[in-house]
Every structure is written in structure tokens, then in C-alpha cells.
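Deviations from the work plan: none for this task. Representative record:
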Amino acid sequence: MEKVKSYIDANKERFLEELFDLLRIPSISAQSEHKPDMVRCAEWLATSLVKAGADRAEVMPTDGNPVVYAEKIISPEAKTVLVYGHYDVMPVDPREEWRTDPFEPVVKDGRIWGRGADDDKGQLFMHAKAFEAMCETDSLPCNVKFMLEGEEEIGSPSLYKFCEEYKEMLKADIILVSDTSMISMQTPSITCGLRGLTYMEVEVVGPNKDLHSGLFGGAVANPANVLTKLVASLVDERGRVTIPGFYDDVRELTPAEREAFNEAPFNLDNYKRSLDIDDVAGEAGYTTIERTGVRPSLDVNGIWGGYIEEGTKTVIPSRASAKISMRLVPNQDFEKIGELFEKHFRAIAPASVKVNVKYLHGGAPYVSPTDMAAYKAAEQAIVDTFGKKPLPFYSGGSIPIISGFERILGIKSLLIGFGLAEDAIHSPNESYGLEQFDKGVNTIPLFYKYFAEAE
Amino acid sequence: MEKVKSYIDANKERFLEELFDLLRIPSISAQSEHKPDMVRCAEWLATSLVKAGADRAEVMPTDGNPVVYAEKIISPEAKTVLVYGHYDVMPVDPREEWRTDPFEPVVKDGRIWGRGADDDKGQLFMHAKAFEAMCETDSLPCNVKFMLEGEEEIGSPSLYKFCEEYKEMLKADIILVSDTSMISMQTPSITCGLRGLTYMEVEVVGPNKDLHSGLFGGAVANPANVLTKLVASLVDERGRVTIPGFYDDVRELTPAEREAFNEAPFNLDNYKRSLDIDDVAGEAGYTTIERTGVRPSLDVNGIWGGYIEEGTKTVIPSRASAKISMRLVPNQDFEKIGELFEKHFRAIAPASVKVNVKYLHGGAPYVSPTDMAAYKAAEQAIVDTFGKKPLPFYSGGSIPIISGFERILGIKSLLIGFGLAEDAIHSPNESYGLEQFDKGVNTIPLFYKYFAEAE
């Protein structure tokens, strides 16, 4: 593996320059104006993977944004690793809070700053470059397939069908994913649990036009007021979601499991200080890491209605809306939760308004077993690069497609992410540490080695 | 008065053309980008008033937008009428709901369509043209002063000081205001009550940046969720404002007063149909016209936070805000209500967030006596033009400066408005009926006549 390491060291600068080209493409999947950027980004990646050593790389159309597929088959007998990643990124608003242009990456304080620096362009590019290093040094011990999608941040709507259609082409022994975080550089971890997600949008509709709040105020239901009532009622004073049936399928941890779970290093004071909050909040009776790791949650991701510009306008808005998402845990069914939400929201709306409820996207929770060969290989690889055995970690995040992979392709996923909480993914000023990139690109070839050697 | 009527009839077309020029100026006081339009609008009005017959007209600077002052003094012995109006207009959003350009007025279906067509450019221009008709036909029986401000829609912040400063110049027997509505063209009315207003803005601040709703959801207070809780709690299930002390000074009507009040013609079915709502809503135990006429209210005028664009973003917003206004009734003090609001909002905020509370503007309620000479003169003028005695009417709206006039200048106001509910002031597609304009411009000279003749 010394050759691989030397190759990586010798080409470090070029790797970064290439990554910067990738980060410059504003591939925001949520906003349709960026459609051309999605195609441009996919083409850039296909070209890059061929240069890295792939036998073939294709930009494959879907109903939505294209999938980049590439492969290098060294032998029918060798194990096959399917690398999954996504080249789409989150929107950048509030843009005014960015200290640098989100699509003009810069290195400062040992970190790469820009949208997608971690999630997921930075992380997927580690796989491309680790692959290149293994190819160029003739040390690739497995067949490799890449499947890079452009719709992860909007719930992977096209990838399910893509997997159904190309089941044969996608055959592999493990799916390797770097789209998650570690506890810290001092406490490396492998994600073995992901929450599921159900993402809804609600609209409360009142009078057929905005009304003068003096002439009508107090006599006509104000959709913005009603929206606050309805949304506020979705979580009770003990932090529990009030939707009937919401907790029916939640697997409660045993006391022993809870104890083990809370052994992960966690410092509440540092946590609060890093977020600049005086107190945490959440479901009564659970610790902070339980609240994000094994308990479901409900968050308003966006809310709007009425006059939101400078100054005052005395208006009763005709309508008001909110985007609301719920994080789910085993064994909650994201589609059932969507139905329960819709039924409940309609039921609690007063007669003075109408409501519209829309399901936007969702995905199932996922548990990645710690006793599989790929997990052991990743564990050993991390011991080599970090000098410490990684902890199994339950992330509060969701990658809805991961459970889809198991269902459709029958392949488990290994979630070996090198992100950190401070990377601020989905937020302004996203960044990715140069050390994280370096550790990642050096850990990946070791994974291939140990995975190839495993029984 | 025949000469006046003939003059108006002969010049009708020109009056409209001039009004259209006035409506084309986008004088939105809430948005600072329109500062130059405010000055342009004031200058246009001063020029127009001189042409109409004023001895002098001036654009007088204030700390904010200028005041247009004009006068014609016919005799020191004659009564003096001070006409008040405002040339600023409301913002136009949501712009996409306008069927025509808000600042390119058109006549269609017997109505003038455009921002300010009624509120208040259309209504103040009736006074300018009635004044012109009296001047040109030598039938002006009173001294006339005009005070037209450019900040009514943002709470007249500069006019209080202006009145203090020019108390002498503004001396008059009555302030004549057309900035209100009638019940209908079949049921003319004179507004004898206006609600007061306290307009606040609140912000809930959580973590120091937007967070990933998966990694943090359920463990960190979400400012948008908290905002819905706080705002929802401000009005209880019986439609009563929960701020301690809010109702302390509210004057309750006697049963006899309530009975008289509810004698005004009102058809609930038509009301609901015109708004396209299945049910009204408001304070339990009061009728719809009581709810807007004599009871206070609390409305969310705008709410925003998090991701409000197309698609989905899984984010816990760092902050969320709302604009909230309260309509007040005699004897509520708008400044005290602002203080009670702020104290209460701070008190109910949980330790997991910080809140900012800002007072934006306000004004006192007003009651215009029905036994004063000016009221009687207006009543008689309306009998002449509408063929019916007008009803005294309590409007739910507010013109905060009106109570300021009485306090500072010691002059009462007569609220003779020709608007209708269907004019949709403050909403998209504001309009003003040609018949309303015509009735107004013909009623005003009759008011002057009867007012001059009164004891």
C-alpha cells in the first residue's frame, strides 16, 4: 500500500484543483433553473472517472437528473464494490450569510469552503481519487462500480426505478457510501444507523384574497394564525409528536441498549457552546444523542405567509404554508407516516379555512450490521489511518435511498463517512477539512485491501 | 350648486386623466427604494393644487417623506376646513396576483384598477377636484387647507412632529378626511369610529447557523417550531388575546349599545360568499360587525423562516420571524399594548431560544362625535347625493394620526369616505368605482355649503 500512499501524496494538489472544478458547478437539485448544471456536472464526473481508470463511464438519463455510472472489472472472481454518491447539492440560501461565494471554493484555515465541499462532492471525490491511485499503482484488488446520482437532496425520486432497471449491471457485494460523518477526528466512527424521512408541505387557505387586517381583523380566520395553531399542535409540551399512531411502530431500546448507546463520547456543554444556545430541547426522558439517534422528530423546515418584506403591511394573508419533515426510526414506515400526517392535519383544521397537504419525499430508516465483512474491513482500515478502532454510530440524518438499495438490489451498504459536525452541511459556509479529505482518500484503498482479503 | 355640478360633469374625463398620472407614481412608503417616487408624488400634488386654485402650495420636508401643504383663504371670518389625505400607498406583493399592472391604471367594468385607486389617491383627489370646481365657479364658502402626507401606511411617523411645529398654520374648524369606506352604495354611512393599532415584529433565534434537520432534529429547539408555539398561544380557543392586561381598558358596550350597533345591515352569507370562506371566526360571544367594529383583534401579517423556495431542504432554520399587529378599541393605549405584548412574548419564550421584539408603529383608536356641526353637514350632503340618510359606522380599520390630530391640534376629524369593501384596498387588484369617485366629488362641495351655513 506504500505505492498508493506515495501516489496520493504526489498528486494531492492536482486532486484539490480537480475537486474545485467540481465544486464550481452549482448543481442544486431542488431548483429547476439548475437543470443544465446537473447535466454538466454529470458529464464532468464521467470524464473524470474515465481518466481515473474506469473501463467505461456513462451519463445515463433518468426521469430526473442523470446518473453517472462507471466501472472497472478486474476479474469475474474478484469481489465487487459499488460506490454510491451524489453530485447534487443543497440550495445556498440564506446566501447573505456565506462569507465566501458558495460556488467559488477557497482553502482557508486548513479547510475547503463551498457548497458541496463535504456533502457530497468532497466525499465522493475521495472515492474517485482513491480509485485512481489504486489503478495507477496496479493495486486495485476488487471490481469497482460507481453510481453517482443527482437527486439525493430531493429524495432520489428517479434512482429507485434506475435500480430496478439496471439490477444486473449494479450487482455487487457491498455498496460503499461516504455521505455521513464521524463523531470527531479523535473519535472515528462508522455510521450503522440512519433515520428515515417523511417530508410534507402544508398550506392553509382562507379568504380568496389578501384582506385589510383592520376591516376584517378579528372576524375572518387568518391563515397565518391558523397555521401557527396547527403546526404548534403537532408537537406537545413533552416534545412528543401528537399525530395519532406516530409512535406505534417505533422500536424502543432496551435499558441495556440505551446504556451502551449513551457510552459514546458526548459533551453537552461543548454541544451547546458550538451552537450558541443556552439549552437543548427535545423529547422528555431521552438524552441528546438518543433524541437524534434513535428517536423520531418533527421539524418545520420552512414557513411563510403574508408580508415578509421591509416595514409593515396591515394584511390578512389569503394563504400561509409550511414545509415540515419528520425523521423516523426503525420500524416506522415513511409512507404510512405521510398518510397519518395528512389525515391528522386535515382533521385538526377548523371549518373557517381549507388546507392542502402534499407529500414531497421520504425514505425508510436503515440499520447497517456491524458483523458483516465490509464493516470489519472498514474498521481495520480506520484503525490503520486513525490509529483507533471506530465506534458504531447512529446518525440522525437520512439517506432514503440506502434502504431502497437493500430492498431492490438486495445489497447492504457500508456507511464510511469522513464528515464532521463542524462541516455545516446544508448550512451557509459548508466546509470540509483537508485532513478529512486526506484521511478519507488514504482509508478507502485500505478498505478495498481488507475487504478483498476477507473470507 | 348647479354651476359646480356642471363644472364637474364637463371636466370628468380630464379629472380621470389627471388621477391616472397620480396613480402611475409608485409611492410605496414601506420600501425605501421608492424614496424618489415619494418626492415626485408630493411635487405632482403641489403643482396640481395650485392649478386647482390654491393661493399657495408647498412640498414641506419632514424627517421622512414630505408633506404637501396648500391653502386658499377666502376670508378671516369664514370657517376653515383642513383636508387630510395621504399620497403613499401599500406595497403590491403578491404581484403575481394582479390582473393588471398596479401602477398602470385602467378603467374596466366601471372601475379604476390600480394601487391607490381608492386608498388614498383616488379619495384625496376627489377633494382636489371638488376644490377646483368650487374655485372655478366662485362658490367656495370656506377657507381650505390641504395637508397630504406620504407616510400614512407606515404609521405617520413624521406627521406628529409636523403638526406640533405648524400648529398655527394648520388651525381649522374641522379636519375632513376621505380614507374610509361606506357600508354600500345603497347604504351610505359616515365612519364615526376607528380602531387603534399596535404593530410589532418578533424574531425567534436558535442555533448560530442553519442546521441539518437530520443531525440535529429532535435535540435542538427549532426557531420555526417555537415561533408557531409562541404565536399560536397569543390567541386562545375562544378567540381572545392572551396577553395579560390586554382587555383591561377595553370599553364594553352596554346591551342597548350592542343592540343599536347590530342594527346596521349585514348579511353573513353574502359576507362569507364574497370571501369564499365556509365560516367566519373570531371572539366568542360577538357578532361579525362587533368583532371588527368594537372588539380588539390580533393578526399575523407576515411570517417567515427557513427554506421557502421550490422543493425541499432539510434544515433547522437559525431564526424565524413574524409581523403581528393588534387592532385596538376605545380606551386601549397603543403604546401600553406594545409594552404588554413585548413583556408577554419575552416571558413565554423557552430557555432554548432567544427572542427579539420590535415595536414598528401604532396609533390610538378614534371616535368621531355624531352631534357636531360637521357631521350634520356631511349627513345632509349625503342625503342630497345618495338620496338616503347615512348610518354612523364603526370601521375596523385604523388611521393612527387621526387621534393625534385631536391631541396635538385640538381639532376633530370628520371621516367621510366613499370606499367600498370590494375596492380591495391593501390587496392585489385594488379598484375604485367611477360612481364612487363621481358621488364623492359631488358630495364634497355640498358638505362645504352646509358646513358654512351651520351655526
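The radius of gyration of chain B is 23 Å.
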